Here is the input.
Amino acid sequence: MKSAGWYNFTEYPSPNISMVCPVVLAQFDTLKQPLVNNCRSPISSLLAGKLKCKYKPGPWEPCDETTDTMSKILTLTSGDRRNCQPTKVMRRSCRKWNSCKYKVGEWGPCVPTTQSRTKVMTLVRGNAIRCKPTKEIRRKCVRLDGTDRCFFGQWKDWEGCLNGVQKKHREVLQGGQECQKRAVRTRGC
Here is the structure.
């Protein structure tokens, strides 16, 4: 508990300012903290200014392999320029964020000699050392029972709302009537 009527501001995380300021003990007991506005001093405006520093984050930089960290710069957008840092640097570990993300391409044609189709996935985000630049997905064109396997193009955007329902489609590249059911998705709107 603080001494009656006084609060030592050296306990606040402020830049090397030490000051003793009168505070009404009843306010301290009720709020469990001093009311900074009771101080008629530069510390009040400094603490108030620190609370109003707003920053805009920039993009994440590529992973630094030597430290296994990535960083981005935060730039001051509003706040007292005398009391706010113009830029800050935010850092985080690459491990959690370094997963390989790929853009999935379209299915190629069915190759008669292998009876299979291939589509290529291209790396769009991730560590070039840990992630393959491209991956191939290969599927047989025909099921074991001899029927055509379903192959689809990419999903199109959702259509406008009509009677409380939205639809989106994808092209059936190969397959019979049963594939048409899997080429449409619906949702309420």
In short: The chain has four domains: 1-51, 53-98, 99-141, 142-189. Residues 1-51 form one domain.
